[in-house]
Amino acid sequence: MKIVQPVFSIALLLLTIFSFWFYPAMAPVLGMSILAFGLAYALYAIFQKHKHAENARSKITKDILIFLITFLFILILSGALGLFVNHYVGVWFGAVAGFACAMLVSFAVGVGVRKGMMNLSA
Fold it and tell me: Which of 28, 41, 89, 118 could cross-link 98 (Cys pair, CB 3.0–4.6 Å)?
């Protein structure tokens, strides 16, 4: 299973990039299905982590709540900052530069929240 994860992720990334260029109408459907798959895989990993633990139900509930709160925080913060950066960079340098900067800011927000959550859990 460990070897399949990176190969599957890279294949989905390439499929998404391919769909943006050749099938633009298919991109939202593919994006939503990748998001749903990622959420389902995260929940599966939480269940597997606490498979044989004592008080498994409370640990699973706590981990799922932390995951959902973190996911929503990243979604809202990266969306807001991405829109802000896209607006200001796009005015000065064009739409493509604005989009690229918005993607970089969204990625940085995700990394920052992940580091912060790792510090809280340690």
Answer: 89
Q: Which domain holds residue 119?
A: 54-122
- Answer left, alpha or beta for residue 53, where phi above 0 means left and psi between -120 and 50 means alpha: beta
Q: Which two tokens stand for residue 90?
A: 């796009």
- For residue 67, which of 114, 105, 33, 103 has the smallest C-alpha distance? 114
Is pTM beyond 0.90? Reply is no
* Cβ neighbours of residue 105 closer than 8 Å, sequence gap 6 or more: 78, 81, 82, 85
What are 73-88's pLDDT values in tens digits? 888 888 888 888 888 8
